[in-house]
Amino acid sequence: MRAARFVVPLAWTGIIFWVGGADWSVDSTRGFALPLLHRLLPWASPDVLDLAHLVLRKSGHVVGYFVLGALWWGALRRWHAAVLVAALVAFLDETRQAFVIGRGASAADVLLDSASAGLAVATRAAGVALTVDAVTGVLLWTAAVLGTALLVLDVAAGAPAGWRWLCAPAAWLVLAWRRRFAA
Questions:
Q1: Is the whole-model pTM more than 0.70?
Q2: Which residues of the chain have pLDDT under 50?
Q3: 3-state secondary structure of 12
Q4: What is the spatial distance between Cα 135 and Cα 182, in angstroms, rounded to a whole number?
Q5: What Å distances lie between residue 17 and 23, 34, 38, 99, CA to CA?
């Protein structure tokens, strides 16, 4: 393997570690993100702006680790090695954040980061169409099974199910449609 193939993935890994530092903590990004979000969403309450800020931060995780996974796939050409390296970076970054003032470690972030890198590797290794089909299937099964479980809980508790009366059956119908036309 040529060493030059590792320059860009290692540089991106360095950027991820830099962004994982105190300069990019929730409080630091809130200072510039909330005024920008308030300009974009002038109708939004402070709670909605905080939620939008959280979504932006988690989107940064998804994009950053998607790129990292794709770059390591390009360098290593082994899907398991690329995902393992990205997951290791996520674990080390979150572990380091446990010791940085203003930051905190999160196992959920490691999971999100690893899944994002895995999606990038799957897309590059298997192709876009196959990856989209697999991810769609997983999401539909999740919506169908969890939606049905939540419906059962709502009925048992006497709580209103709301939109789940539409979503869970729709997921089952789409799964049946996919199965029928896949054959």
A1: yes
A2: none
A3: helix
A4: 15
A5: 11, 24, 29, 13
